[in-house]
């Protein structure tokens, strides 16, 4: 089963009050999306370019977003990195990190946790 949004509303102002811990953990997740898209064995030239661009954005702006979450330019570039990583990942396949998480999601969905 593939679940993907038909529409994404990407508004950096909505992220300005996120706590540092949420900024850091979700930022690392989106960095993982970008790395998995870039290193995936079934990657395409387009997904490679998008993944690499997302890695560059996130590597530059994630530390700044954790340090100063109220900077709108930083938040805008982090969201751009997250969006580009998602587009890249949607055009490839998961890597090892998210593949390992898939069984855990199924267990949670079916109520074992
Ligand atoms: Fe993820």
Kindly describe this structure.
With 113 residues, the chain is mainly α. The protein has one domain: Dehydroquinate synthase-like - alpha domain (Dehydroquinate synthase-like, alpha domain), CATH 1.20.1090. The protein has helices at residues 20-39, 45-67, 72-90, 96-109. The model has no long low-confidence stretch (mean pLDDT 89). Residues 29, 33, 98 line the site of fe (ii) ion. This is Iron-containing alcohol dehydrogenase. Keywords: Oxidoreductase. Pfam families: ADH_Fe_C (PF25137).
Keywords for this structure?
113 residues, mainly alpha, Dehydroquinate synthase-like, alpha domain, 67% helix, globular, binds fe (ii) ion, ADH_Fe_C, EC 1.1.1.1, Iron-containing alcohol dehydrogenase, alcohol dehydrogenase (NAD+) activity, Alcohol_dehydrogenase_Fe
Give a brief description.
This protein is an all-alpha fold. It is built from four helices and no strands. It comes from Bacillus xiapuensis.
Reconstruct the topology from this structure.
Blueprint: H1 20-39, H2 45-67, H3 72-90, H4 96-109
The protein binds fe (ii) ion.
Fe (ii) ion binds next to α1.
Q: Overall pLDDT, averaged?
A: 89
Overall, the morphology is: globular
Low-confidence stretches: none
Order of helices and strands: HHHH
Which hetero ligands occur in this complex? Answer: fe (ii) ion
Total number of helices: 4
Strand content of the residues, in percent? under 5%
Number of distinct beta strands? 0
Roughly what percent helix? 55-70%
Separation, N- and C-terminal Cα atoms: 21 Å
Q: What would CATH call the homologous superfamily? A: Dehydroquinate synthase-like - alpha domain
CATH topology heading: Dehydroquinate synthase-like, alpha domain
Overall CATH class: Mainly Alpha
Largest sheet: none
**Rg to the nearest angstrom?**
15 Å
In total, the number of domains comes to 1
- Class inferred from helices and paired strands: mainly alpha
State the CATH architecture. Answer: Up-down Bundle
């Amino acid at each position: 089963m593939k679940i993907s949004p038909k529409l994404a509303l990407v508004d950096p102002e909505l992220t300005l009050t996120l706590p540092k811990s949420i900024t850091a953990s979700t930022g690392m997740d989106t960095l993982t999306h970008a790395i998995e898209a870039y290193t995936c064995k079934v990657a395409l030239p387009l997904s490679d370019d998008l993944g690499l661009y997302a890695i560059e954005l996130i590597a530059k702006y994630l530390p700044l977003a954790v340090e100063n979450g109220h900077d709108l330019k930083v938040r805008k570039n982090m969201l751009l990195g997250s969006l580009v990583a998602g587009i890249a990942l949607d055009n490839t396949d998961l890597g090892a990190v998210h593949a390992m998480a898939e069984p855990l999601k199924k267990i949670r969905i079916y109520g074992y946790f």
